[in-house]
Design brief:
about 160 residues, mainly alpha
């Protein structure tokens, strides 16, 4: 049982901790611009200040989507363990990730240089829906392969 907790639940807790670390003032827009903007300037020296600001914001929003995409995969893996169907774990995962996103935004509202945003919850939710959609496609393909192999096996018996 202890191994199962370490293998399935601990990665979710660790990733949530990383997400909440990213929602501190150390990762505010002003702080991340110190790294992202020079990177953009190096690779795209002709970008105007407005374009640099646009791309900085886009990269930050992609970060939201990616963080919650990964959280969703880890949470679904944890909730799906030993479940007979896939719908219930997906619904639980969706609710869990939505709650995590709202809690993250509340946490940001308590910091000095960040603020809460329902739009960011939308980006987070998009990452979750994307992950669950890809997981559904993967499970359908795996199930289809299993049925094909099983039918081929029966034909040869």
């Amino acid at each position: 049982m202890r191994t199962l907790i370490l293998e399935y639940s601990l990665p979710v807790v660790v990733w949530l901790t990383i997400i909440y670390l990213f929602s501190t003032d150390a990762f505010s827009g002003a702080e991340t611009s110190r790294f992202i903007v020079p990177f953009l300037r190096f690779f795209f020296p002709n970008l105007s200040p407005a374009e640099l600001e646009l791309w900085h914001g886009a990269i930050r929003k992609l970060g939201h989507i990616t963080e919650y995409f990964i959280l969703t995969l880890l949470a679904y893996r944890s909730f799906r363990f030993e479940a007979s169907d896939t719908l219930r774990p997906k619904l639980i995962t969706g609710g869990f990730v939505l709650l995590a996103a709202m809690t993250d935004e509340f946490h940001q509202s308590l910091t000095a240089f960040r603020g809460a945003s329902l739009i960011d919850v939308g980006y987070d939710t998009f990452g979750a829906v994307w992950a669950l959609g890809l997981m559904t496609l993967y499970e359908a393909a795996s199930d289809r392969q299993y049925r094909v192999r099983r039918s081929l096996h029966r034909r040869w018996l």
